[in-house]
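Dear colleague,

Thank you for sharing your sequence with our group. We've completed the structure prediction you requested, and as agreed, I am returning the results in plain text so they can be pasted directly into your records. Please verify that the sequence below matches your submission; if there's any discrepancy, let me know and we will rerun it promptly.
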Amino acid sequence: MSMRQIRSILNPKPPTPWPSPYHELRESNLSLVPLPGEEMDDERRELYATAKEFQRMEEDDAKLREWVRNEVETKGYVEMDDDWVRRRAEVSAIAGEAMKKARALLINDTEEEDDSDDESDYDDDDDGDDEFYF
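Please find the predicted structure tokens below.
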């Protein structure tokens, strides 16, 4: 494994915060086990499943960092299987494409909200009373 890859694993960018609904769920229920009554709600079960996946990914990253750190300390290098390197590159490419799509959706959604706000903010009521809000 190249030193660049080792550094990127041992010194990752600050983690992206969990999206708000998952963060709130994690804060209110650390075990991420549905409470009585929640297991029947499909939407709530999906929320728990996704939060557990975020948590599993964090744990896997921590294990990988620890393993790489140990390899560097004991051997001075990290030997990786070519398949692992290929899969990691594929995952990075897929994640990059997904982020582009997500950003595009957010930008389009924001533009649509802005357009609808314009219509409601500037109603022509012609009552002669102009009101200004600051």
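Summary note from our side: The chain has a mean pLDDT of 77.

Kind regards,
the structure core
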